[in-house]
UniProtKB/TrEMBL annotation:
Species annotation: Aspergillus puulaauensis
Protein name: Methyltransferase type 11 domain-containing protein
SUPFAM superfamilies documented for this protein: S-adenosyl-L-methionine-dependent methyltransferases
Residues spanning the membrane: none
GO MF entry, a single one: S-adenosylmethionine-dependent methyltransferase activity
InterPro entries found in the cross-reference section: Diverse_substrate_MTase, Methyltransf_11, SAM-dependent_MTases_sf
Residue ranges constituting the Methyltransferase type domain according to the UniProt record: 47-149
CDD domains for the chain: AdoMet_MTases
């Protein structure tokens, strides 16, 4: 199924996404670069796929001579260009993960064959058609290059949070209410990408990658995965962050007029968390909510 929620984002939605989503931890970026270099990867050209507002491309561009970010959403690309307008070393273009800027996609100049040293996809691969993506990756990634894919899932409240058991139950209920609006990609993140198609497991298999060099790193929490470690955010920011989830967007499309009101699914969730905190003695229910999620990083090497 083709993902449509993010693909149809407007520029305003792209700006809200950029402002509300947490960036990745510098240690995660360092892990990606260090593994890439230690396995023979070079640092000439970076391609970030499903780049969204461009945070990954911007963070990693300092390591590379050339950086390109691709996303199928014109709204996201306009946002990325605006945010990175002072960084002339990054090129942002509209393209799908299945085309990867091929000449047939209309991208000019196209992403040349065997031109990319490191291809990254952050919290995006669950929306790709993986057989088509791997065929395209085999075309553009240089021999010895790397494909690094990562994401996170399964929100958990910190054990030390006041009334934490009840809050965790409310988090679980929130996801259960949203589950009718999950697409297969959302379930892939909840499964920590363990069922994500890899070059040797998709049908038909894609040649040109080293199965024996496949590397996976799991993060039991986000201490070294998200920019602020185990995120501790105020509930207003937490509500905004949850509002960028694709199932929430689909829920809101199915409930016109609810967004921004007390009937909104995320607003109801936030109010319940505030109530549970107040019941534990936290004044006004405004304690910052400390939580975490499981992270995962997958690296595939090009022969």
């Amino acid at each position: 199924m083709t993902e449509k929620t993010f693909r149809e984002y407007t520029t305003d939605q792209g700006k809200e996404y950029a402002q509300s989503r947490l960036d990745y931890h510098p240690k995660l970026y360092d892990t990606v670069i260090n593994h890439h270099k230690s396995t023979g990867g070079q640092l000439n050209a970076l391609l970030d796929v499903g780049c969204g507002p461009g945070n990954v491309a911007a963070a990693l561009s300092k390591h590379f001579t050339q950086t390109t970010g691709l996303d199928p959403s014109e709204g996201m690309i306009k946002t990325a260009r605006a945010i990175s307008s002072n960084n002339g070393a990054i090129r942002f273009e509209v393209s799908t993960a299945e085309d990867l800027g091929s000449s047939s996609s209309g991208l000019s100049p196209p992403i040349a064959d065997a031109s990319i040293d490191l291809l990254t996809a952050a919290t995006a691969a669950h929306w790709f058609d993986m057989p088509s993506f791997w065929r395209a990756a085999a075309r553009v990634v240089k021999p010895g290059g790397s494909v690094a894919i990562w994401g996170s899932g399964n929100l958990r409240v910190d054990a030390g949070t006041p009334n934490g058991e009840a809050i965790q139950a409310r988090i679980d209920a929130f996801e259960e209410e949203l589950s009718p609006y999950f697409l297969p990609g959302n379930w892939l993140t909840r499964g920590l990408y363990r069922d994500l198609g890899l070059p040797w497991s998709v049908e038909p298999a894609v040649e040109g990658f080293e199965e024996g060099a496949f590397w996976r790193k799991d993060y039991e929490n986000t201490e070294e995965f998200l920019a602020v470690g185990a995120p501790k955010v105020d509930l207003v920011a937490f509500e905004r962050m949850l509002g960028t989830m694709s199932p929430v967007t689909r829920w809101r499309e199915d409930h016109p007029g609810a967004e921004g009101t007390e009937e909104d699914i995320v607003r109801r969730f936030r109010r319940d968390i505030e109530r549970l905190l107040r019941e534990s003695g936290v004044e006004d229910g405004q304690e910052r909510l400390k939580g975490s999620a499981q992270g995962f990083l997958l690296v595939v090497k090009r022969k």
